[in-house]
Amino acid sequence: MNLYLNGRFMPLEEGRVSVEDRGFQFGDGVYEVVRVYRGKPFRLEPHLRRLEQSCRGIEMGLPEPLERIAGVCRRLVEGHTEAQIYLQVTRGVAPRLHTFPKDAPPTFLAYSRPVTPPAPDRVYRLKVVMDDRWGRCHLKVICLLPNLLAKQKASEAGCDEGLFVRDDGFVTEGASSNAFFVRGGVLWTHPSGPRILNGVTRETVLEVAAACGVAVRQEALRLPDALAADEAFVTGTLAEIAPVVAIDGRPVGTGTPGPVTLGIQSAFRDLTRRECP
Ligand code: PDD
Hints:
By secondary structure, the protein is of the alpha+beta class. It is 27% helix and 28% strand. Strands 7, 8, 9, 10, 11, 12, 13, 14 and 15 form a 9-stranded mixed beta sheet that branches. Strands 2-1-6-5-3-4 form a 6-stranded antiparallel beta sheet. Strand 13 and strand 14 form a beta hairpin. The longest helix is centred in the C-terminal third of the chain and has 17 residues, at 259-275. It is globular and about 55 Å long. N-(5'-phosphopyridoxyl)-D-alanine (PDD) is lined by residues 33, 147, 173, 176-178, 197, 199-202, 235-238.
């Protein structure tokens, strides 16, 4: 029973949602992805708080109280070790009208799936892509077309991730990750706000950096400054801390993962082991 759909647990293959679901027709919904280490969800509370913020951000109520949703998540991962939980809330099923339906209950689903943890020595190559997303990137909404197009462009160029740059020249984040740069021993990342999704992993990295004595500047960098960084990495729930070795085919620093990145990666792994023993 690895799917919970509108109040019932069932096998994932048995889940059915109407063709008139507003998530399907409009992308009118929000989502979360949570990582499970050794059978325990990592940082579940911040993910659920963000789900609540995303719901509020699109003027939709939570489908169930957060404690109940946390209970659903715990039940979905019973018997799993390394897994992910995907949660999605849409504005429900109604005849197709742009305005919100008056009394459609939200469609709420959550399911778990096993994950293959990233190889310890995996590195990323990035491709710069134009960040032409809307002005509310802090909301984790299911309409991900700009992100999908960016990721596809990156993949077609033989890269692992797209690096979003706005028309004002500032680097924001990855297509499905947050971006960090090391310059002269200081860690730089775009400040939280409407231009990026404030990643749970990003927040964890800020904590880990403080604990490791790494100075942090939450300030946007222009692309040439990012390209000239000594080190770079991207972060995400499933990607964890991925060292970046090249951007648009040009090596970052020495073209191999640097000491600050490796230190943060190792401290992050230790933290997941402590919090999810
Ligand atoms: N994506 N920025 C964007 C645009 C993202 O889609 C994600 C995560 C992140 C990192 O957030 P977090 O550390 O909370 O996972 C930043 C998820 C994993 C996805 O869409 O699959």
